[in-house]
Amino acid sequence: MNMYIESIVLKNFRNYEDEKFEFSEGINVITGMNAQGKTNCAEAVFYLCTGYSPRATRDKQVIRYGQDKAYISGNARTQYGAVNVELTFYPDKKNIRINGVETLKMGELLGNINSVFFNPEELKLIKESPEDRRRFLDISLSQMNKKYFYALQKYKKILSQRNSLLKDENKDLIRETLPIWDAQLVKYAAVIIKERNEFLKLLSPFALEAHRFITGGKEELQVTAGYRYEGSEENISAQLLSDLSDSAEKSIILGYTTVGPHRDDLKIKINGEEVKTYGSQGQQRTAALSMKLAELEVFKTRFNEYPTLLLDDALSELDFSRRKRVLEMAEGLQTIITCTEADDAFSGKEARRFSVRGGKIENRE
Ligand SMILES: Nc1ncnc2c1ncn2[C@@H]1O[C@H](COP(=O)(O)OP(=O)(O)O)[C@@H](O)[C@H]1O
Ligand SMILES: [Mg+2]
Comparing C-alpha atoms, which of 29, 22, 33 is closest to residue 336? Predict the structure, then answer.
C-alpha cells in the first residue's frame, strides 16, 4: 500500500473560500482555465506536507484577500495509520496541529504526509543558482529526515552568528573567536553533508533510469555532488574545518563564510556535458523531472511507500511519448495532476476529475 491523501479542506486559502477535495488513491486530475485555483490546490497539499509553499511566496500571501486568516486541513492514510494535519495562517505566524494537537515545532509537521511537487518553474533546479539546488536537497531531505531538518536549523543559526562576527571591526577578536564558532559549525555541517551524500548516492541511479526511460534510452543523466566532502561525519568535519581555517582571512575580508553546505552545489550532466550550460530547454526540463521522479523512488526505498506526486501543469510541455512515459511511471501511486482542459491527456485513463473555476469545484466525476 502507498500513502495517500484522502481529502483536503481549504478555507480562505488563496482564492478558495471554503472547499473540499476528496482525492482517489490513484490519479486525480484538476482542470480549469488559467488563474482559477489549480496551482493553489497543489500548493495547499505541499504546505500540509512540508510547511512550505513550493512557490517563492510569503505565508501571509495565502490568506484570501480581505480575510484575517487562512486554514487548510488534510487527511491522509499512511503505513502508520490515519493522520490529520491542519495549518492556520495568520498575518504574522502559522499554527500547526497534528491529529488535533497543536505543536510549535515545524519539525513535527515533517514526515506525516509526504509529497513531491513538480511544475514548469522547477526548471530552475537545473538552470538557476546553486541555491535552487540546495533548496531541492533541503526540502526533500527535511521531509525524509528530522535529524537533517534540525541540523539545518542549527547550522543556519550558527552560520549567521559567525557571519556577524566576521563583520566586526576588531580583526584580532575575530581571529581569536572564529575557531570556537567553527567547531560548532562543522558539527552540524557534517550531519547535513553526510545526509546529502547518502541521498545523492540513492538518487543518482534512479535519476539516470528515469531520464533514460523518459527519453527512450538516448541520454545519460548524471547527478553528483559538486563538492568533495566525503566519508564519515568525522572525516567531513575534519575536511571542512581545515577549509574554514584556510579561508578565514578571505572570509574576514569579504565579511561572510565562503565554504560549507550553504555554498555547496550539485553537478548535473547529460552525456558528460553540464545541462545548465549546454542543455536545451527540453533536456533541462526532462532532467528536472527525472530528478523529481527519482526523489519518489528514494522515498520508496527509505520508507517502503511512495509519497503523493504533484504534477502541476508539468506535462503540457512534454511531447506525447514523454508524457505517456511519465504517466506510466506514476502508475501505482497517488498522483494529483493539474492542467488546462486542452492539455488533458488522460481521457481513457481511469482518474478522478475535478474542474475548478474561481476557487470553486465546478464538477466532480
Ligand atoms: N491571497 C489570495 N486571495 C485571493 N485570491 C488569490 C490569492 N492569492 C492568489 N489568488 C488568486 O488565485 C488565482 C491563481 O490561482 P492559481 O491556482 O495559481 O491558478 P491556476 O489555475 O492557473 O493554477 C489568481 O486569480 C489570483 O488572483
Ligand atoms: Mg497554475
Answer: 29
Q: Tell me if 350 sits within 8 A of 43, measured CB to CB.
A: no
Residue 119 lies in a domain: no
**299 and 312 assigned to the same domain:** no
**Ligand 1 neighbours (beta carbon < 6 A):** 14-15, 32, 34-40, 61-65
CATH number for 26: 3.40.50.300
- pLDDT of 59 reads 95
Confidence class for position 343, pLDDT limits 50, 70, 90: low
Q: How many domains does the chain have?
A: 2
CATH number of the domain at 259, please.
1.20.1050.90
Query: Confidence band (pLDDT; 50, 70, 90) for 365?
Result: low
My answer on whether 212 and 139 are in the same domain is yes
Q: Check if the beta carbon of residue 2 is closer than 8 Å to that of residue 332.
A: yes
**What is the three-class DSSP state of 304?**
coil
Distance in Å, CA 178 to ligand 2 centroid: 47
Find the 150 Cα to ligand 1 centroid distance in Å. 33
- Which ligand has the minimum distance to the alpha carbon of residue 121? 2
Q: What is the amino acid identity at position 35?
A: A
**Residue list, CB under 5 A from ion ligand 2:** 38-39
CA atoms within 13 A on the CB side of 133: 22
120 in any annotated domain: no
258 & 235 share domain: yes
Within 10 Å of residue 349's Cβ, how many Cβ atoms? 12
User: Which is higher by pLDDT, 55 or 89?
Assistant: 89
| DSSP, res 52 | S
- Residues 145-158 have pLDDT tens digits of 999 999 999 999 99
Domain that holds residue 264: 126-303
| 3-state SS assignment for residue 39 | helix
SS3 assignment, position 250: helix
What residue owns the CA closest to ligand 1's atom 24? 35
* Residue 47, in any domain of the structure: yes
280 in the same domain as 181 = yes
Same domain, 137 and 264: yes
Q: What number does the ligand 1 atom closest to the CA of 62 have?
A: 1
Residues 251 and 353 in one domain: no
Amino acid at residue number 48: L
Ligand 1 atom having least distance to the Cα of 312: 23
